[in-house]
Design a protein that fits this description.
Layout: E1 8-14, E2 19-22, E3 28-41, E4 47-59, H1 60-69, E5 75-88, E6 94-107
Parallel strand pairs: 4-6
Antiparallel strand pairs: 1-3, 1-5, 2-3, 3-4, 5-6
């Protein structure tokens, strides 16, 4: 069970075109948002869609695959782990961001 301590699996659609960053160290980073949808009926029987947005980052070979093959709107399955980072903004306020570090992905849907 130790492999399940920090594991995230999502299927959704890219909300943005992946941003690719080549760092001075030679490492490559890919960043994008991903939307997941949950459908249910409310008390009135109306269909409701609840969309959640996730910040995704990937490094190395996974980032290279993302750069070559993924585009905004495309459906993908990802597996990774949750991480939270913090920084101080220009006004000195502490800011936090939770991201999913993707280590595996599966392209889904129709081939274009």
């Amino acid at each position: 069970m130790s492999t399940l301590k920090n594991k995230v699996q999502l299927i959704g659609n890219l909300g943005t075109q992946p941003e690719i960053i080549n760092l001075e160290s030679g490492k490559i980073l890919a960043k994008f948002t991903m939307a997941t949808n949950e459908h249910y009926k409310n008390a009135k029987g109306e269909k409701v869609t609840d969309t959640q947005w996730h910040n995704i980052v990937a490094w190395g070979k996974t980032a290279q695959i993302i750069e070559q093959y993924l585009n905004k709107g495309q459906e993908v399955a990802i597996e990774g782990k949750l991480t939270t980072r913090s920084w101080d903004d220009k006004e000195g306020n502490k800011r936090y961001m939770t991201e999913i570090v993707c280590n595996e992905l599966l392209m889904m849907g129709d081939k274009k």
